[in-house]
Amino acid sequence: MSTFWSAYIFALTGITILGLVALIFLTRRMPGSSDPEETTGHSFDGIEEYNKPMPKWWLNMFWITIFFGIGYLAWYGIGNYKGLGNWSSAGQLAAETAAHEERYGEIFERFAQIPVEELKDNPQAVRMGQQIFINNCALCHGQTAQGYYGFPNLTDDDWLYGGSGEQIKTSLIQGRRGQMPAWKDTLGSTGVAAVTEYVLELSGNEHNAELAANGEVIYSQMCSACHGPDGTGNIALGAPNLTDNIWLYDNPELDLKQDITLTLNNGRAGNMPAWEDILGSEKVHLLAGYVYSLSHGAR
Question: Which residues form a coiled coil (predicted)?
Answer without folding.
Answer: none
